[in-house]
């Protein structure tokens, strides 16, 4: 084979190799592009799926918050109604006939007194009290088997209607206000349980 033929053969081989290399490179490039598109599409699908889940979770949270706000507003309205009801009850109790209030506080003292406390009279709606009350209530205590040794404190307690039993720094309030507060706590708890359910034992 002469030199010209050899050079021609080398050139043809080089061109064939270059063409094959270019073809391989193009195929690899197409494969990379396809893989990249698939990766991008996969990421896009994942993002859309996550966005949908996040959206559903957000909607659920917003719904729960709206329900909670509704319940809080309802509880606030119930408390306002309770306020009004108890204000009316306090007014009605204070305006009851003097003999009824006298009998009520006598029963309260008989049930709660040990028999030797100091008795303070509330200044509000105290028309039921007179100088004979201490003697009468001590007689009731004696009849119940308790020491009839209640003593009357000087002056009256402002801002309350009823009696306060005091001994050794401790007080028992037999007043309309204390009775209404006790009843109110039960009603507010009942309203909260109705709206929000009973508190968890783990809470």
DSSP summary, beta strand count: 4
How large is the count of helical segments? 4
Average the pLDDT over all residues and give the rounded result.
83
Structural class of the helix and strand makeup? alpha+beta
Q: Compute the number of structural domains.
A: 2
Assign an overall shape. Answer: rod-shaped
Profile the largest sheet: 4 strands, mixed
Q: Distance between termini?
A: 98 Å
Helix content bin: 55-70%
Write down the Rg.
Answer: 45 Å
Largest sheet, spatial ordering of strands = 2-1-3-4
Q: Name the beta content range.
A: 5-15%
Q: How do the SSEs run, as a string of H and E?
A: HHEHEEEH
The parts where pLDDT drops under 50 for at least 5 residues are: none
């Amino acid at each position: 084979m002469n030199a010209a033929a050899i050079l021609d053969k080398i050139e043809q081989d080089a061109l064939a190799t270059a063409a094959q290399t270019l073809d391989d490179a193009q195929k690899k490039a197409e494969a990379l592009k396809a893989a990249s598109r698939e990766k991008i599409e996969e990421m896009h699908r994942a993002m859309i799926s996550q966005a949908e889940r996040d959206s559903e979770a957000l909607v659920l949270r917003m719904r729960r918050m709206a329900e909670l706000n509704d319940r809080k507003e309802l509880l606030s309205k119930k408390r306002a109604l309770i306020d009004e009801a108890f204000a009316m009850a306090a007014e009605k109790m204070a305006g009851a006939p003097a003999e009824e209030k006298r009998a009520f506080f006598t029963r309260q003292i008989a049930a709660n007194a040990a028999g030797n406390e100091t008795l303070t009279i509330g200044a509000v709606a105290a028309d039921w009290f007179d100088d004979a009350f201490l003697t009468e209530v001590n007689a009731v205590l004696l009849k119940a088997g308790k020491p009839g040794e209640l003593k009357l404190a000087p002056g009256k307690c402002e801002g309350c209607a009823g009696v306060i039993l005091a001994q050794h720094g401790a007080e028992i309030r037999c007043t309309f206000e204390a009775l209404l507060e006790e009843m109110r706590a039960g009603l507010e708890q009942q309203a909260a349980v109705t709206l929000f359910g009973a508190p968890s034992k783990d809470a």
